[in-house]
Amino acid sequence: MTAPLNQSNFTKYQPFVKWVGGKRGLLSQIIPLIPKEFNNYFEPFVGGGALFFELYSRGVLKDKKVYLFDINAELINAYNIVKNNPFELIKNLKELKEKHSKEFYYDVRAWDREDNFLQRGEIERAARFIYLNKTCFNGLYRVNSKGYHNVPIGHYKNPNICDELVIYNASEALQSAIILNTSYKNVMKHASKDDFVYFDPPYYPLTPTSSFTSYSEFNFLDKEQIELFEVFKKLDMLGCKVTHSNSDTEFIKNLYQEFRIGEIQANRFINSKSSRRGKISEVLVRNKYERQKL
Fold it and tell me: What is the pTM (predicted TM-score) of this model?
């Protein structure tokens, strides 16, 4: 039985990283559309994990298995360190905060160009990941074809590099989660009837020149969106309750036309021109299930 979503007194758990396309600003529109009841919870493109942390805050995930996937190895390493060793992580982040400068930022960013990068400790790499996330331009995570982080430094007077409370709370929330550095396709190995799967993939580009899908060194365009659709259909046939966020484009709406497609309004912040930021329509695709009633 899923806990009610209108609880007013609960500890607030939230993402410990910023994430382009993150759903914190859309939760009030998404929450009423999730299943009223479900068994286990899956977020195969976890990113910042905004929906996971919100559902955990509300007690909805109590006594449920939670699976959080992402193909971004450094992101998943950070999740595991937050879960298992938040104290040492915070210690490392405080050291990075003390050294923070423009020159230091680019030195740290260049670590992944080194041959021995993966030989650095997992805690050190997790601290680097969070440090770059908190100090780079717009909290953007982007890599080039070689997998190297290539986002310039942001213009922040006092970036919140080490938010101890957020990290400790996130660690608590993640204790019962199964965190895997793997493709979303592996959801098929774990999901069963009446499980809830929420897909939040890199969005299909609104225009041919607006493509930004490089959250990892892997692209996510037409072919990949169609492959995701096939997994969505298989989960539907399995009896899972499935929800999928994406851009409001004819390609996506045609692809999912046999399912329920709703529109939600999001704020667009990532654009070099402020005149092109603002409200933008997105789609939320669902298969058949009884939704929450707040």
Answer: 0.90
